[in-house]
Design brief:
Blueprint lengths: L37 H12 L7 E4 L6 H13 L7 E5 L9 E5 L3 H24 L2 H31 L2 E6 L2 E8 L2 E2 L2 H6 L2 H58 L4 H16 L31 E4 L9 E3 L5 H5 L1 E2 L2 E3 L2 E3 L5 E2 L2 H5 L3 E5 H6 L3 H11 L1 E2 L4 H5 L12 E2 L3 E5 L2 H10 L1 H6 L2 E4 L3 E3 L2 H18 L6 H15 L4 E3 L2 H18 L6 H15 L1 H11 L10 E3 L1 E9 L4 E13 L4 E4 H4 L5 H18 L8 E6 L12 H13 L2 E3 L2 E3 L2 E2 L5 E2 L4 H15 L6 E5 L10 H8 L4 E5 L2 H9 L17 H35 L1
Parallel strand pairs: 1-16, 1-17, 8-13, 13-16, 21-26, 23-24, 26-29, 29-30
Antiparallel strand pairs: 2-3, 2-7, 4-5, 5-6, 9-12, 10-11, 14-15, 18-19, 20-25, 21-22, 22-24, 27-28
Length: 809
């Protein structure tokens, strides 16, 4: 037992604060970047370096390892050295209404162009009315109108003269001209015309037809003259408008001569302005129409505005966008609508950018879980990455729910590197079940949950603490405080030679230690403040641990820490409450008897056993058979259970404990109840490592302390788990004083000797175990079972033959 007992120095790796070359973290340069993630950092740097399609990045790892913070820091650093992408604008499409077009301009020019168009419209509203108020325009317009009036009068006189020559008088009506026959200077009435001689009436009818033809020709010439007059006036207005508009637009053409798409747009603007000059001239208001009854969306000048869709005038380098709510519209943009008098209206100025637009030419950082859980966002994101183009579409149009007339904005080419942040399980799911994912996210940056506990990383941990103190304006740590953080970090990592990289948990202790430092006073945060923060944090969460301990103390949960019992001992398990976990001892019992069912796991029989636990129990049959049943059949039934366990059990960390219970039951040797056990076992009888060994030891120590430490109590752990021990200072002190013991074993034989105080016994050359050893007693009991089973089988056969003979006779 002494040989297998662990010395005090292996129970916890203390951090010697004197090894630090600084007195306080105030003397350190705050940490930039991330610590202990060399593999992930190299993957990130390569992923950001390569610009080929499909090389987007998935950052995987446990929550709290600093992925998001590091991603933002690194990407911002790289983005500052890259080119600023273009501005993008949506403008009115004069050729295809409802299909706004895009213009891209160098960064900053989009904002300037939008302002230029605003100023152009303001200038035109002033210049065009002024141009039409000039004497020259009125004189030329009046000349054109006078010529039309003169020509019209001349044609009408010609028509009147022709009618008189033909014996008619023309009378103008609302529908045209009516010809009235005249005889002897007297206009004929309809009755008089009916009374005329048939020959004379026929001649009048023939002349009437000729006059109508002549009238139609004259009226056609009048309409033609009217049309020509309107065209001349329009041409005149266009010339006057061009005089007011031309030089202003020419200035813009000159300014943007290097951008053909802008020049083409300005040409369309000029043509449309000259075709709608009345929009720039004062309009007479209808006094009978109330303002609120005016039809919606009738601003005729709105089409000349510019929708500055993406403005990179203030961007430094390429853009970095972190979208915390990646809904479909937040990612891909939208066309907004406005309710005006019950009518939903929209226009190109209501096209709004999404996160992908804002990140175009740069980087988009997203939480993978948020994207996937948001309806349609994941498929939309993949579509953009595959096509390299983004077209804004409303969900209703895609789903085909209701056909609604809407805008169809032109698409924008997209060049963005997406960085998804999630956990490793999500990565595996996407990789195996989404074939697009492996094509689009070819870089995996996998963050580790731990790093080596070496001098460099401990110094980096101190620099990290310094950066937190500087950023948050809290007190700095002295060397003792840093040493306690290092020890706590190893405890979180469950390894003496590792430090955790779950920095959010370290930050919590830093904040809380600062709070306790403020209570007690002092210029710096010390090791005592850190211990206080850790203890108080545990106290806030350990209510259920205390409740279970009370039940154990009261005997409601039966756990023995003294005496010896056959087929019974204490196993150790972990209860995880999410924010807190602790070890809990449980009584495990075994009952063995003659039979052929082998090892029965009661938890499995009632279906509250997990697969790992069931596997561990089934391994026991393999061990018993291979060790004790080489020459005899294994005629055994062994019933195993966790007493007072109702919520289910999983994991194989109790398999060695269960085997000890079976061996005790078979050998009849009692097991000392002050020694608890954890550890897995294989079919060869080798002890295998388990998880949570620190909490398990502390859980049993707490029970023993409450009952009273006798100096004989302790825990058996797998020898591989020694490096995982980061026990509390209280446990370490108890071991140092000889009040508690921790044993590390490699085999079942070593463990059973500690528990029973009897040698396990190794086979001699004849294959026999030493008499009186544990293995001898187990072997003897199994042989007894085998003989009993053979005798029972013989007797059963005799009875069977006798019954058959009697039936035959």
């Amino acid at each position: 037992m002494t040989k297998l007992e662990l010395p005090v120095e292996k129970l916890r790796k203390f951090c010697d604060y004197t090894q630090f070359e600084f007195e306080t973290t105030e003397q350190l340069t705050p940490l930039e970047g991330i610590v202990g993630q060399e593999r992930a950092v190299k993957a990130m740097e390569f992923g950001l370096l390569i610009k080929s399609p499909g090389y987007n990045i998935f950052m995987g790892g446990l929550t709290g390892t600093g992925k998001t913070t590091y991603a933002q820091s690194l990407v911002h650093h790289i983005a500052k050295t890259e080119e600023i992408p273009d501005d993008w604008c949506y403008v009115y499409n004069f050729e295809r209404l409802g299909q706004p077009i895009t213009l891209n301009l160098p960064p900053g020019m989009g904002k300037e162009f939008a302002q230029n168009m605003e100023e152009l419209i303001e200038d035109l509203l002033a210049e065009i009315p002024k141009a039409f108020d000039g004497e020259d325009y009125e004189r030329q317009k009046n000349a054109v109108l006078k010529k039309f009036q003169d020509d019209s009068s001349q044609l009408m006189e010609e028509l009147t003269k022709t009618a008189e020559e033909m014996g008619f008088k023309l009378k103008r009506t609302s529908t045209g001209f009516v010809s009235i026959p005249i005889i002897d200077g007297h206009p004929l009435s309809p009755a008089e015309f009916e009374a005329l001689d048939e020959r004379i009436a026929k001649e009048i009818d023939e002349k009437t037809v000729q006059l109508q033809e002549r009238t139609l020709d004259i009226m056609r010439r009048v309409r033609q003259a009217e049309k020509e007059t309107k065209e001349k006036i329009k041409e005149l207005e266009s010339q006057v408008g061009l005089f007011a508009v031309g030089h202003l637009i020419d200035d813009l053409r000159e300014k943007y001569r290097a951008f053909p798409q802008v020049i083409n747009y300005l040409n369309c603007v000029q043509v449309d302005i000259l075709a709608h000059l009345d929009n720039f001239r004062p309009q007479e208001e209808d006094p009978n129409q109330m303002a609120w009854l005016k039809p919606p969306g009738k601003d005729p000048l709105k089409k000349y505005k510019v929708n500055l869709f993406i403005d990179n005038s203030q961007t430094e380098g390429s853009p970095v966008v972190v979208e915390t709510n990646p809904t479909y519209y937040n990612l891909l943009g939208r066309v907004e609508y406005k309710n005006e008098l019950g009518v939903m209206t929209t226009d190109f100025t209501r096209i709004k950018a999404g996160a992908i637009h804002r990140a175009n030419g740069g980087y988009l950082i997203l939480q993978a879980k948020d994207v996937i859980s948001s309806p349609y966002s994941w498929e939309a994101l993949k579509r953009v990455l595959k096509t390299g183009e983004l077209r804004i579409e409303n969900l209703g149009d895609q789903l085909g729910a209701v056909a609604v007339a809407t805008l169809k904005p032109a698409g924008i080419p997209i060049n963005v590197k997406v960085i998804l942040i999630g956990n490793s399980q999500l990565y595996q799911l996407l990789y195996h079940y989404d074939e697009d994912f492996r094509k689009l996210f070819k870089i995996k940056s996998d963050f580790d949950s731990e790093m080596d506990r070496n001098r460099d990383n401990m110094t980096n941990m101190a620099a990290f603490i310094s950066s937190i103190c500087e950023k948050q304006g809290i007190k700095h740590f002295d060397r003792t405080g840093v040493a306690q953080i290092v020890e706590h970090s190893s405890r979180l990592a469950d390894h003496q030679e590792k430090l955790t990289t779950r920095f959010n948990e370290i930050v919590e202790i830093v904040y809380e230690a600062d709070a306790w430092s403020s209570v007690t006073g002092g210029h710096y945060i010390t090791g005592e403040h850190v211990k206080k923060a850790i203890a108080e944090k545990a106290y806030r969460s350990n209510k259920y641990e205390v409740k279970i301990q009370e039940l154990i103390d009261a005997g409601v949960i039966m756990v023995d820490t003294e005496g010896s019992v056959v087929g019974q001992l204490n196993g150790l398990s972990i209860l995880n409450l999410g924010d807190y976990e602790f070890g809990r001892p449980s009584r495990i019992t075994a009952a063995t008897y003659l039979g052929q069912r082998g090892v029965i796991n009661i938890e499995r029989e009632i279906q509250i056993s997990g697969t790992s636990h069931s596997k561990g129990v089934m391994i026991l049959s393999g061990y018993l058979g291979s060790k004790y049943a080489q020459e005899i059949p294994l005629s055994l039934t062994a019933s195993l259970t966790f007493e007072q366990l109702y919520e289910g059990v999983d994991g194989d960390s109790a398999s060695s404990t269960e085997l000890y219970a079976i061996m005790s039951s078979l050998s009849g040797l009692p097991i000392y109840q002050g020694i608890a056990v954890t550890g897995s076992v294989n079919q060869k009888g080798e002890i295998q490592p388990v998880g949570g060994v620190t909490h398990k030891v502390e859980g049993f120590f707490t029970v023993c302390k409450q009952r009273g430490l006798t100096g004989k109590q302790g825990v058996i752990i797998p020898h591989q788990n020694v490096v995982n021990l980061m026990l509390s200072e209280e446990v370490v002190e108890a071991v140092k004083e000889g009040k508690f013991h921790i044993f590390a074993v490699e085999t079942i034989d070593q463990g059973i000797e500690i528990l029973t105080g009897i040698p396990a016994g190794a086979r001699d050359k004849r294959g026999k175990f030493p008499k009186g050893s544990v293995n001898y007693l187990v072997q003897e009991k199994l042989e007894k079972y085998a003989r009993a089973m053979l005798n029972f089988s013989k007797e059963a056969k005799k009875v069977s033959r006798a019954r058959k003979s009697k039936q035959t006779g």
